[in-house]
Specification:
CATH architecture: Alpha-Beta Barrel
Helix content: 40-55%
Number of helices: 9
Number of strands: 8
Number of domains: 1
Strand order of the largest sheet: 2-3-4-5-6-7
Strand content: 15-25%
Structural class: alpha/beta
Largest sheet: 6 strands, parallel
Bound molecules: pyridoxal-5'-phosphate
Shape: globular
CATH superfamily: Alanine racemase
């Protein structure tokens, strides 16, 4: 694990990247939230984030968050950004403040039932496989209306936006195309359904500039803040 001093340097560098990307696309930096991705790192990663004022963290495993929540003294909010298995839905509803990785109709049904039982309204994002990557979870573009219909019919789920992960590719133009696609899908759902879908969670260490240019409101950054994962 890196030291707090190293983390602060990394954080400063990421803020500069965000500023520069916003400048280039004529956006205000207040429109882009930085979600530190603390998965695989010890609980200090969450304390470092809190130290610089980042109060929300991204994690991808239920069991890991269960352990970290019991060790962590701070007041973070927790966002699930990884695929959720059906048998972990009840725990996930208890542990997370928002689930960004809602990727199937079955998961929508199970989440809604679990929330009904616990009397909790859960904010979610729909995950879209906008880059049509066979190795990624998420609804295909053609299924997004059906997915949104299902969430709008789920009393205990509140859809706040869309999330995507760009295909693994060294060529930045493929990330750019994926992010522009998600933005376009969002815009057409908004005009079709006359609802708000304000959040676009897209962009990570490698492609945050392309994401910000395409309209990202939340970049999820792990390795550039905490170093590479073991
Ligand atoms: C791990 C992960 C990230 C962070 O990736 P980095 O390349 O380390 O910034 C972002 N989003 C999701 C969904 C992830 O699983």
């Amino acid at each position: 694990m890196i030291t707090l001093e190293e983390f602060i340097i990394n954080f400063t560098n990421i803020k500069l990247r965000i500023e520069r990307a916003c400048e280039e696309s004529g956006r205000d930096i207040s429109e882009v939230q930085l979600l530190p991705v603390t998965k695989t790192h010890p609980v200090q990663a969450i304390e470092y984030a809190l130290h610089v004022g980042l109060t929300s963290v991204g994690e991808n495993r239920v069991q890991e968050v269960k352990e970290k929540k019991s060790e962590s003294s701070g007041n973070s909010t927790w966002e699930l950004i990884g695929h959720l298995q059906s048998n972990k839905v009840n725990e996930a509803v208890r542990l997370f403040d928002r689930i960004q990785s809602v990727d199937s109709l079955k998961l929508i049904r199970k989440l809604n039932t679990a929330c009904e039982v616990s009397g909790k309204v859960l904010p979610i994002f729909l995950q879209c496989n906008a880059g049509e990557d066979p190795n990624k979870y998420g609804f295909g573009e053609a299924s997004m209306s059906e997915a949104l219909d299902a969430v709008l019919g789920s009393t205990y789920l509140k859809c706040e936006g869309l999330m995507t992960i760009a295909p693994l590719d060294d060529d930045p133009s493929s990330a750019k195309a994926c992010f522009e696609k998600l933005r376009m899908i969002r815009d057409s759902l908004v005009s079709e359904y006359k609802i708000e879908l304000n959040e676009l969670s897209m962009g990570m260490t490698q492609d945050l500039e392309e994401a910000i240019a395409a309209g990202s409101t939340m970049i999820r950054v792990g390795s550039a803040l905490y170093g590479s994962r073991a």
